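User: I've been trying to design a sequence by hand for this structure and keep getting stuck. Would you show me what you'd pick, starting by listing the structure so we're on the same page?

Assistant: Good idea, let's start from the same input. This is the structure you sent:
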């Protein structure tokens, strides 16, 4: 693996302050795996507390607005996340694309706002089952990468190592269905080629993560696969023990 594996827990709309116990346990264990970059993206309400109570793990938001501030009731800006202690933000998750009608154009503007606000950014892409069955998975994901990642001027200004793409096939999220390792390898290869065409050589420094029903059992095979730079973990990140088993699998691959 060319980069330090990056294992990110996306807590989605889960977690009250009681979950800080899990965050602290994850933090203690992450400190013992310096070869792995570990991060948590709790709901907005816990970003500050997770950032305050952890040292070895990064803290991120799960979305940000395109603007730095203003009349946008219910939204949170990248600058606000940074002020709360976040160092990155996830944008374009398929659940936001589905629940909030987010388009590639909007996701791109959010990703650019994240970089401008001093945050790292994880941009999510992934095909639906219908698109995969129709043989369109690579075309769909390639298009999403081109249209959702920061434009060259913004991306070039940022350190490309602050950017990551998470390949999350929609049909693998929360379903227990994992993409076949050979399909993950093929897709990560297509994403890397697209990144190189977008950013030139610096496209090599953008991490590509896999997400979709990653757990303690399948993590080792997925993380050992060619071109997989880490994992974006949903359900299995809600519990320190199952998340740390994935971190341990990454450590053995590092
Ligand atoms: P699950 O790991 O629960 O399938 O969720 C994946 C995901 O959407 C991470 O962002």
């Amino acid at each position: 693996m060319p980069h330090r594996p990056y294992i990110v827990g996306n807590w989605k709309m889960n977690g009250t302050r009681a979950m800080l116990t899990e965050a602290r346990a994850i933090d203690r264990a992450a400190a013992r795996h310096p070869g792995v970059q570990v991060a948590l993206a709790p709901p907005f309400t816990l970003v500050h507390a997770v950032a305050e109570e952890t040292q070895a793990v990064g803290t991120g938001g799960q979305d940000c607005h395109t603007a730095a501030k203003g009349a946008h009731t219910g939204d949170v800006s990248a600058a606000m996340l940074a002020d709360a202690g976040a160092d990155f933000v996830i944008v374009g998750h398929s659940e936001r694309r589905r629940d909030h009608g987010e388009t590639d154009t909007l996701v791109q503007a959010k990703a650019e706002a994240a970089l401008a606000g001093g945050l790292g950014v994880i941009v999510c892409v992934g095909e639906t089952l219908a698109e995969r069955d129709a043989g369109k998975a690579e075309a769909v994901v390639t298009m999403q990468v081109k249209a959702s990642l920061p434009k060259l001027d913004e991306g070039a200004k940022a350190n490309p190592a602050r950017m990551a793409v998470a390949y999350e096939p929609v049909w693998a999220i929360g379903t227990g269905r994992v993409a076949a390792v050979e399909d993950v390898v093929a897709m990560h290869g297509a994403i890397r080629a697209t990144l190189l065409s977008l950013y030139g050589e610096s496209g090599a420094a953008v991490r590509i993560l896999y997400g979709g029903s990653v757990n303690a059992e399948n993590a080792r095979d997925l993380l050992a696969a060619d071109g997989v730079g880490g994992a974006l973990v949903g359900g299995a990140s809600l519990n320190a023990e199952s998340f740390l088993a994935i971190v341990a699998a990454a450590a053995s691959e590092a």
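That's my pick for every position. To get oriented when you compare it with your attempt: The beta strands are 6-10, 37-41, 57-61, 88-91, 120-125, 163-167, 207-211, 230-233. The radius of gyration is 17 Å.
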